[in-house]
Amino acid sequence: MQGIRLEWMTNQIACLTLNKPERGNALNETLMKEFSDYLQQLTSNLNLRALLIQSTGKHFCTGADVHWLKRSLNFSTEENILDARLLEKLLQQLDEFPVPVLMIAKGAVFGGALGLLSCADYVLALEDTRFSFSEALLGLVPAIISPYVVRVIGLRQARRYMLTAEVFDVQQAIELGLVHQQASESNLDELRDNWIKLIQKTAPHASRKIKTMLMRLSVQDGLHNEQQTNIQLMSETRTSSEGQMGLRAFLEKRHPPWS
């Protein structure tokens, strides 16, 4: 089964579906590479007007894949840096995608998945969706996603939610700016289609130029200035004694020493 599935809703509207429901659509190196390759392919399509990103199964994305985390216990610092660069490349591609991007969140949206949401132009979330910056529970740091997330929710709110790793609901996500609108199973398709219709009414070249303009403002805001430091930080925390203890506790389904 493909980790990411590409379909066309029309000849101008593409849909990428996270397609590993048995693993909660969790992120690993294979899925991220596949995701990245599709984004690269779609970026070169000048007829594309919009991109929808959704998921199969119960969850949008539960964060890092358990099997990937297990393998990472034996990664060197250099291997962890390569892993971090995979996620950073994916987030940057999403953030700089040339046409409007809609994401549909549901179930669990944990860890790195919140970085994905922060790079979308519009986010719908089903009413039972739950969110968490869960990294601190594992002795890790949400380093790579932090510039994208802080741009969306602000430093003050990032301090609360990243430091506590608390789970929050759709209403809180809307207040933070991570989600634009709540949906139900009964009106999700209507809300999705309404957004697509709005995009289709806009001038194609103007739409792309607006995205370029907004990206220029993000660059001026220093979004990517700290990413090399963040990549190093992610690698160091994964290989630290605390990070190793946290990952082992999670994989062995027990509480870490600090809990």
TrEMBL record:
Q: Which UniProt keywords apply?
A: Lyase, Membrane, Transmembrane, Transmembrane helix
Annotated membrane-spanning segments are 99-124, 136-154
Q: What is its EC number?
A: 4.2.1.18
Q: What is the top EC class of this enzyme, as a single word? A: lyase
Which molecular function GO terms apply here? methylglutaconyl-CoA hydratase activity
Q: Name one GO biological process term.
A: isoprenoid catabolic process
InterPro entries found in the cross-reference section: ClpP/crotonase-like_dom_sf, Enoyl-CoA_hydra/iso, Enoyl-CoA_Hydratase/Isomerase
Q: Which family does it belong to?
A: Belongs to the enoyl-CoA hydratase/isomerase family.
Q: What is this protein called?
A: Methylglutaconyl-CoA hydratase
- Recall the taxonomic lineage recorded for the source organism: Bacteria, Pseudomonadati, Pseudomonadota, Gammaproteobacteria, Enterobacterales
